[in-house]
Amino acid sequence: MVRGLEARAKGLLYRGEIEEAAELLRRTIAQGPRTNPRHVNLLGICEIRLGHREMARELFSSVVSEFPRNASALTNMGNLAFLEGDQKTACDYYARAVQENVFLQEPRFNLVRSYQYMGHFEKAMIAYEEYLAMAKLGRWGRTVLLLFLSLALIAVILIVKR
């Protein structure tokens, strides 16, 4: 049901039926006993597209407050800062999002754009190379990398325990 709702809301959003998507998400959030950060993030995206940046900021901030490691909300806060011309804050949010989920491509790409806007072309090139490296990995490459890192961590823990 949750995935169906998200798929329906995203479908409405991508078809340009933003108000309908927002209303569906508002009703769902109001009915739910607890906060679903994915729903709140989607509603925030709707609010941005409707021109309600302050409402979007409140929604994304509420997710970051309740779920401080939510990479999507951190990315969206960065997107808001980017739209408002505050590239330094945008970079900070994008960097936090990447720290929370190293496999996300959106905050990596947006970090490149923010560095470019600030005139930090060397940092932009480094961030772009990291973005390309992650993009080239693909889904299976990321899965294998994550498995390898997990096994390495387990090996280190076992060695330290001896």
What does this structure look like?
- It is a single chain.
- It contains 8 helices and no strands.
- The chain has helices at 2-14, 18-31, 37-49, 53-66, 71-83, 87-100, 106-118, 121-161.
- The longest helix is centred in the last third of the chain and has 41 residues, at 121-161.
- The model has no long low-confidence stretch (mean pLDDT 90).
Compact description:
With 162 residues, the chain is an all-alpha fold. It has helices at residues 2-14, 18-31, 37-49, 53-66, 71-83, 87-100, 106-118, 121-161.
Comma- or semicolon-separated keywords:
single chain; 162 residues; mainly alpha; Serine Threonine Protein Phosphatase 5, Tetratricopeptide repeat; globular
How many angstroms separate the termini?
47 Å
Q: Can you tell me the residue ranges where pLDDT is under 50 for at least 5 consecutive residues?
A: none
Helix-strand makeup class:
mainly alpha
Q: DSSP strand (E) fraction?
A: under 5%
Quick one: how many beta strands?
A: 0
What share of residues is helical? over 70%
Architecture per CATH nomenclature, i.e. the level-2 architecture of the largest domain: Alpha Horseshoe
Determine the CATH topology of the largest domain: Serine Threonine Protein Phosphatase 5, Tetratricopeptide repeat
CATH superfamily of the largest domain: Tetratricopeptide repeat domain
Q: Could you tell me the radius of gyration in angstroms? A: 18 Å
Total individual domains? 2
**H and E string:** HHHHHHHH
Summarize the main sheet: none
> What's the pLDDT, averaged over the residues?
90
Q: How many individual helices?
A: 8
Anisotropy-based shape: globular
- The CATH top-level class label of the largest domain: Mainly Alpha
